[in-house]
Write a structure and sequence with these properties.
Layout: H1 2-7, H2 28-42, H3 46-57, H4 63-79, H5 85-108, H6 113-132, H7 136-156, H8 163-175, H9 182-186, H10 194-207, H11 212-223, H12 230-243, H13 248-260, H14 264-279, H15 290-303, H16 307-319, H17 327-343, H18 347-359, H19 365-375
Helix pairs in contact: 2-3, 2-4, 3-4, 4-5, 5-6, 6-7, 7-8, 8-10, 10-11, 11-12, 11-13, 12-13, 13-14, 13-15, 14-15, 15-16, 15-17, 16-17, 17-18, 17-19, 18-19
Length: 386
Amino acid sequence: MLPRLLGLPVLASLVLVASPSPAFHAAPEVQAGMLRATDLLLNRDVEAAETECKRLLTRSEGEAAGRFCLGLVTLTRAEDKDDPTPDLDRFLGQAAEMVAAAEVLERSQPADAEVKLLLGLAHGNKALVDGGRKNYLAAFTSLREAHRRFEEALKLDPNLVDAYYGIGLYNYALGRLPVLLKPLVSIVLPSGDASHGLQDLERVAEQGTYLKMTARVALLHLYASREAKYAEALRLGRDLLSRYPGNADLYFATAHAASELGRGADALEIARRVARNMAGGRPRFGPELAGRYAQLMGKIYMDQGEHATALTFFQRAIETPTPPRYLWVTAWAWTRSGMIYDLQGDREEAVRRYRKALAVPTEALAQDVARRYLETPYRGRPPSAS
């Protein structure tokens, strides 16, 4: 539960870079290096980003920033692994080093807001990893510490807009907890407000310094999924793709938003760029995306009412060997194909497919949808739906 709440859509959406301050990376080359590393990570140029991070460690004022940066490289690599355990173990060691380096700065500069921000970001990422490892007590402890550091940073400098990124993610995640869990979590963590969290992220996306683009990536995923703000997602996604064409997740989220808006031609154009990147051998557009691409194409054709074509793509997604980290794709292909069979009046086949979705060894929203339509047949979207 906790990692899904904290991670939002993906680990890479949480690439966090602290705002510059005279205390810990005032040198222009350190500031420029952090900005370059951020852009490279958001574009999934992980090796080049690692080079930038290591270069920061050679700077007299770059140790804390460099260690933090290398931790983000490790998290980004972990996302590409079916077994991220070795990378996550490595990150936890790096987290201890980055916190220690930042605490040295805090002792010498106790009133520096940006040092508090750096510590908040470090503890926040550690909470994410602890949660992913099911070390829930450690995750709650780190999350509480992250929230405290963000609040301290804003008390010291209310104009430090980047600090609202951490506060925003916290508020959104805690505000979206199931009702039954909120009383339990409130015992150990301050409460959260999802609407305020979204506003905080939007503020950083417009006014942030080093976290502006990171906030925009997070908002794209939220708008294209839970928030269902598809027009905003499409606008954001197009802008982000022009800057980060190497990030496959951006294509999927943007195409999904276009399809939800009924803009099938736009959705297909964006999706087919994924296929071209795969065919061209672009890094991080390997065969592991084949099933995910087929499921996306099926969803787009389903939204356009072209059910026969959609079923062909869904079946392709089901039959394509899928890495464990993408089993949710298989669950969606079974669920959405079941929805089509419901629309066609073949309840027996629809039920069979919903049960196949539930049998996929993953935890995914697709399975919640399958359970719903096992009880009541899918009858299509209501007239007011996007």
